[in-house]
Amino acid sequence: MFPVLMLFLLPVGGGIPAGVLLARAKGLAWPMTAGIYFVSDVILAIAFEPVLRLFAALGGKVPFLARLSAAMKAVMARSVAHFSGAGAGPLTLVMIAFGVDPMTGRATALAAGHGFLAGWAFAIAGDMLYYAVIALTTLRLNSYFRDPTTTML
Fold this sequence. Notes:
- The protein is mostly helical.
- The protein has helices spanning 2-8, 15-25, 30-58, 63-81, 90-99, 102-111, 116-145, 148-152.
- α5 packs antiparallel against α6 and α6 (102-111) packs antiparallel against α7.
């Protein structure tokens, strides 16, 4: 289980397919594999939240970060306006985490005024949807190739 978790903690592509294929090779059932991925998201939340809060605190004190923060808020407000008239609601935040990554989803949730639990719940929900899509397509593709290395490529 630990090697699968380590693959899921990789911050760049390849972690999900490799982890799913390794879990399957080790005989782990899909609910257990999904649970391990969920644990990796919780670890990410615990590790990333202090960094996010530090940048949020410094955003008002460091001139460059204040300008960057204002520009990001303006861009997010303009982008979110396309999806809903009421701002960044739960579905919008879940879809941001699904489409980009959970850290961006959490940062957007913080900018929209959501606290730690709600913000990470939206981000993790979106990331778990992303995991499901990648895991299912990896297993399906591997059923055609029957070779994990080719599937990964």
